[in-house]
Protein 1
Amino acid sequence: ETGVTQSPTHLIKTRGQQVTLRCSSQSGHNTVSWYQQALGQGPQFIFQYYREEENGRGNFPPRFSGLQFPNYSSELNVNALELDDSALYLCASSLGAGEYNEQFFGPGTRLTVL
Amino acid sequence: AQSVTQLDSQVPVFEEAPVELRCNYSSSVSVYLFWYVQYPNQGLQLLLKYLSGSTLVKGINGFEAEFNKSQTSFHLRKPSVHISDTAEYFCAVSSSGGSYIPTFGRGTSLIVHP
């Protein structure tokens, strides 16, 4: 059973650019959640996708957008990058959207915005 | 709105000693509570969760936590820690009903000394 994988591992961008981060969910999982973890902070929920539909969103501006594909893999897109977007971006997959379904996390993508 | 406060940013302890990591939450509705562990350069792993029922919850790696509704707390305990328990620990809360949209605390760094 393959776990949650994320790509790329590290990424450096400049302010104003756009970035796409990718996540492959664990086999059989139909739900993907994205989190932003700034240095020294806890993860902050960005949004969740359940069966290709957005199923909940945290307090992030519209320039953070996502997509879930028929195979349940997912992308996180961030437009007009700002310095404060520098963080570890975590993806988690689960079998279902509710709290009864354990989320399995990937290792994250470290984004640095210069 | 819901929030989580992890009262200690860092907890140093000697190997084989007991440890308690403190977590307090606030919410206007019923909650679900979680503890996650994050090892260096890795994603988060679920240690345990409280959804309903017994207020004493046992998790992986010998950890347990007790839900105290009157004190709005969910402290994590382990009777005897190992060097390998050195990691960052996050408490999270999610309001009951609907999708799982968690709010995480800022984390407690557990440092186990030989």
Protein 2
Amino acid sequence: GAVVSQHPSWVICKSGTSVKIECRSLDFQATTMFWYRQFPKQSLMLMATSNEGSKATYEQGVEKDKFLINHASLTLSTLTVTSAHPEDSSFYICSSSTRDTQYFGPGTRLTVL
Amino acid sequence: DAKTTQPTSMDCAEGRAANLPCNHSTISGNEYVYWYRQIHSQGPQYIIHGLKNNETNEMASLIITEDRKSSTLILPHATLRDTAVYYCIVRPQGGAGSYQLTFGKGTKLSVIP
């Protein structure tokens, strides 16, 4: 149980385009989902906390207009990187939370050319 | 959240027990100890968590000292597939799972043939 999927697993896009990443909790409903970013040889950094049916809460320094988060159902959250630039290239990881534990997706490798 | 201190790296011989220490001397009474691991280029994997009693599951055992200021994750028979970065995190439980996880640098465990 507690399986979280992400799609796509990797994506390459041109600078200025937008990319959408989906995060799904497959076998449980998650009121809260989280989005993290990880640069090479660094630890995970929380970007935002997403609650179903409400606006996401962004961490300091994360642009909410650039990283659009939609959490329309208890099993699906999406992260859209708008007008992507090479510095947005990173490993994006989502997690879904039960009452006491977060379960992570496999991650999405984004490369912006 | 309370901060944790872990060794940067450790080696373990294949088939032997891997004992990963974590110091969390400022842990609060309502904070749990969580362990995750991240294999290269994958999302973090939940291992185990506990409050004050020792815990065991199919993956590992968690030993928490009586004063709760430190803990040890034990992988009883390490395999090459256990090579990963192991993160010890403390956080409150409950609140509909809305508490975030703060990742430190973790311990890079290398299992050696």
